[in-house]
Specification:
heterodimer, A: Cytochrome Bc1 Complex, Chain D, domain 2, 4 helices, 27% helix, B: mainly alpha, Cytochrome Bc1 Complex, Chain D, domain 2, 2 domains, two-stranded antiparallel sheet, 11 helices, binds heme C, EC 2.8.5.2 (chain B), metal-binding (chain B), oxidoreductase activity, acting on a sulfur group of donors, cytochrome as acceptor (chain B), iron (chain B), electron transport (chain B)
Chain lengths: 128, 253
């Protein structure tokens, strides 16, 4: 498992919120657990959440706000491939280069811009 | 990662990590028990239903018309080992066929009847009946020049990242087996138990249905059941699982 450190300037793009409406952490939590929306819990565990059957494909997201800035989290959700091209983490706000997306899903990205902001706001509540 | 490998080696001591491990090994004991006991196995009724279709005139055909039985005799002898070497090149057409397609063409050609659709109860039943005759035998599909193109195409499909989640079969079943994907422990994704009763489907499904399920899980456009793409994938999987013993009809979570 490779955890690449962020390139020094990689935050430039993502340091700007994608929308003018500030992220809503409660809504973000609902999105994160929604099994119909490529839930992060497929792969990650968040012990503050009571949800059963949390995945182990990625690292635990406990205290994630102590390890990454808001901009760094945003960038990982928008498109983690920009940090690690071989990552298995799906790009939530980019369909670029994706192969054979099902017609039901091809019209939009997994998350909307506001979804990304809400999820980032939720992750920022995961402190010590 | 090292710890994971160690844990897996302890869990599956009999199998060196390079040897294929059946999905059975990743199931809860209660699910394994369902498969182990033909009376409890919720897929087993298909074997019986398949036997009725095998023995009698095809539904709608006149009494005394040809049947699978009138040409092949008892499946226990004539079909022993057949599914272990499928998919295979059909001597009649030279094309790659799996068991389902071969059965369909037998019904069309030898019984002059309308073949049941892919994934219909009748086709699953005959598939289960025939696959059951190879239970305990190792997967042993053909290799060599004639199928090399098919194998290459299957590998290509297997390793291509696809769908909105951008994952390949290999990402999950090759690189992350043993890990938890939500409630499932990801297995190596082998084909040796199909058709399977899947508890989350609450019914029996074919291997090609499983392919489509996995593709939809990553939000990819699936291929058609019986398509060339799925046949190539099926051949590649059987080769990848070479040596695993057939468990059909299987039971999975
Ligand atoms: C299909 C699996 C998968 C899904 C779904 C997934 N991730 Fe990840 N994620 C990973 C993996 C694997 C890593 C490890 C680093 C890498 O490979 O990029 C990771 C890394 C991360 C990291 C960095 C963690 C660290 O300790 O460095 C964050 C933050 C993160 N993911 C958040 C999310 C969020 C939020 C979602 C849902 C919106 C999500 N992930 C969905 C697989 C996934
Ligand atoms: C996002 C992860 C993921 C991807 C990608 C994926 N699968 Fe699966 N697959 C699963 C899960 C979860 C199961 C059910 C648990 C198990 O048996 O692994 C499964 C089950 C299977 C099974 C049944 C195994 C058995 O023992 O009965 C087969 C066969 C299979 N997958 C093949 C494939 C193929 C072929 C592809 C690519 C087209 C693929 N999978 C892609 C997650 C995935
Ligand atoms: C008129 C005679 C006849 C009938 C009726 C018939 N078969 Fe066959 N079957 C054959 C012959 C001959 C072969 C070998 C040549 C070939 O593959 O076409 C064969 C081959 C097969 C094979 C491939 C075996 C192998 O070793 O690859 C399967 C499977 C099969 N039949 C199933 C069936 C089923 C199921 C039915 C009934 C729905 C059926 N057959 C009806 C004559 C028949």
């Amino acid at each position: 498992m490779c955890l690449l450190p962020l390139a020094a300037n990689a935050g430039d793009v993502s340091s700007v919120p994608l929308t003018s409406t500030p992220g809503d952490p409660a809504r973000g939590q609902d999105i994160v657990r929604d099994t119909g929306r490529a839930s992060c819990l497929i792969c990650h565990a968040i012990s503050a959440m009571p949800d059963r059957d949390q995945g182990t494909l990625g690292p635990s997201l406990d205290a994630i706000a102590t390890r990454y800035t808001e901009a760094e989290l945003r960038q990982r959700i928008v498109d983690a491939r920009t940090l690690a091209p071989d990552t298995i983490m799906p790009p939530y706000y980019s369909n670029e280069g994706l192969v054979r997306i099902g017609s039901r899903w091809a019209q939009s990205t997994i998350y909307s811009a506001q979804d990304v902001e809400d999820v980032v706001a939720f992750l920022m509540t995961l402190g010590d | 990662m090292q710890r994971l490998v160690l844990v897996l080696a302890l869990l599956f001591p009999a199998a060196a990590l390079s040897e294929p491990i059946s999905g059975y090994q990743f199931m809860e004991p209660s699910t394994r028990q369902l498969q182990d006991d033909d009376f409890l196995n919720p897929a087993f009724f298909l074997v019986e239903r398949g036997r009725q279709l095998w023995d009698g005139a095809w539904p709608g055909a006149p009494e005394g018309a040809a049947s699978c039985q009138s040409c092949h005799g008892a499946p226990e002898s004539s079909m022993r080992g057949v599914s272990a070497r499928y998919p295979a090149l059909d001597p009649a057409t030279g094309k790659l066929v799996n068991l389902e397609l071969k059965i369909q063409s037998e019904i069309a050609r030898k019984l002059s009847a309308e073949p049941p659709q892919y994934e219909s109860a009748d086709l699953l039943a005959l598939t289960a009946l025939i696959a059951f005759q190879s239970r305990g035998m190792p997967l042993d599909v053909p290799t060599g020049e004639k199928v090399a193109g098919w194998l290459a195409q299957g590998e290509e499909i297997y390793t291509t990242r696809r769908g909105q989640l951008n994952l390949s079969c290999q990402n999950c079943h090759g690189e992350h087996w043993g890990q938890k994907l939500r409630g499932d422990t990801i297995s190596q994704g082998h084909s040796n138990a199909f058709p399977i009763f899947r508890l989350i489907w609450d019914e029996v499904g074919s291997l090609h249905r499983m392919f489509s399920w996995c593709m939809e899980a990553v939000r990819a456009e699936p291929y058609e059941y019986g398509s060339e793409e799925y046949l190539a994938l099926e051949l590649y999987l059987a080769d990848r699982g070479r040596g695993l013993t057939i468990e059909s009809p299987g039971v999975r979570r």
